[in-house]
Amino acid sequence: MAFYSSKFTVKSTGVFKRADAQIYLGVNTSVFVRNTGNYPALVRLAISPDKKAWMNDGEVFEVPAKKLIVLVPNYSSKYITVEYRSKISCRSTNLTIWVQRQTD
User: Fold this and answer.
1) Residues forming a β-bridge with 43
2) Following DSSP, what letter does each residue of 14-31 receive, concatenated?
3) Phi, psi (degrees; rounded to nearest 5) at 61
4) Global pTM?
5) What three-state secondary structure class fits 91?
6) Residue 53 CB: number of other CB atoms within 10 A?
7) Domain coordinates of the chain in residue numbers?
8) What is the pLDDT of residue 78?
């Protein structure tokens, strides 16, 4: 069994932002989010058929400082990304995000 993996790091602020990386969604996709900062962050998945029309895929999850969570999409689509923001608007924090999917 082979896996595709993509990793990127972002800095979150008080407004939801969409990660620049839009990953092709495959079978058994998992998104890991590690908060490497000192303040909590909020994250949610977004999905798209064409990288233009985006919709939220599920609820918003909190990522406490220094913790790792995993997100799994609720719907099938061609593309997936992560939207993120700091829980405390005046405190930024850093996130490392991995998107992994089964390729065969």
Assistant:
1) 61, 84
2) SS-EE-S--EEP-EEEEE
3) -115, 145
4) 0.86
5) coil
6) 8
7) 3-102
8) 85
